[in-house]
Write a structure and sequence with these properties.
single chain, alpha/beta, Rossmann fold, five-stranded parallel sheet, 10 helices, 49% helix
Length: 261
């Protein structure tokens, strides 16, 4: 879903920035607020956790905060308070939090453009400068708005832009179907409809969608082999997959949003 070489080169660059007391901030944006885009940046976060060479401090390596659209001083104060509270919770018994902070900005910032209130994010990044930041923006974004966002973030960090190339038409069922085809499976039309609904729901409770798809197909494949069945995925196979209630996020909520597992 992304070029691992390019991603890992950017992660090495982030490590270099840390060594020189600079703040790396990724701006990750894409055309669609689809589950596939969320999977894209979840996969990126896992890459970052695995390959970023910094001394992590805190009870978790990363957490997520949602940044709502703000039009008043009261709304700014509330967001800043929640941000600091999230840092404090993640820090736990350590003298500071050092890790990856993900800020998921509201689509209203993209639709309306940023106002002066957006600069509070730059101030917070400067205040907590021992972290790596990822600012995500899902949805259509004008060049002028993107430039305003990136220029503001550059006030307190070294910005690294990453554009998701996932198209709006690329949905989760297509990812599932192509992976299944690589394994030699054919999917019935009814099963395709069912898997799209299934994946759209459970991806909210799981981590990297690619891992989830592989697990699902492995389960189907094992069942087929044990029963000596044909390599055809039907509605019955999808119905046998784990339900939403069987997924446990396993993490608590910090700030405006849940951890990404």
């Amino acid at each position: 879903m992304f070029d691992n070489d390019n991603i890992r080169n950017s992660i090495k660059y982030s490590g270099y920035l840390f060594e020189n007391d600079l703040v790396p901030c990724y701006f990750l944006y894409g055309l669609s607020d689809s589950p596939a885009f969320k999977s894209y940046y979840r996969g990126f976060v896992h890459e970052l956790e695995e390959h970023l060479k910094i001394p992590f401090k805190g009870i978790v390596k990363h957490f997520l905060i949602r940044m709502p659209y703000m039009e008043s001083a009261r709304e700014i104060s509330f967001f800043v308070e929640k941000f600091r509270e999230a840092i404090s919770i993640a820090r736990d018994c350590y003298n500071e939090y050092r890790g990856i902070v993900i800020i998921e900005i509201s689509s209203l910032w993209l639709e309306n453009g940023i106002n002066s209130n957006f600069s509070c994010l730059s101030s917070l990044i400067h205040e907590y400068k021992n972290n790596c930041y990822i600012v995500t923006a899902a949805g259509k974004i004008k060049d002028s708005v993107k430039n305003d966002i990136t220029n503001t973030l550059k006030e307190s960090a070294i910005l690294i832009e990453i554009k998701s190339h996932i198209k709006e038409s690329q949905n989760l069922s297509e990812i599932f179907s192509s992976t299944a085809a690589d394994m030699g499976y054919v999917i019935t039309s009814d099963a395709k409809t069912m898997i799209e609904k299934y994946l759209s729901e459970v991806c909210k409770y799981s981590g990297d969608i690619r891992q989830l798809i592989i697990q699902n197909l492995f389960q189907i494949d094992m069942t087929k082999k044990l029963s000596h069945s044909e390599k055809i995925i039907t509605e019955a196979d999808i119905a046998a997959l784990p339900k939403r209630s069987e997924f446990n996020p396993g993490k608590n909520i910090i700030g405006f949003g849940p951890y990404i597992s």
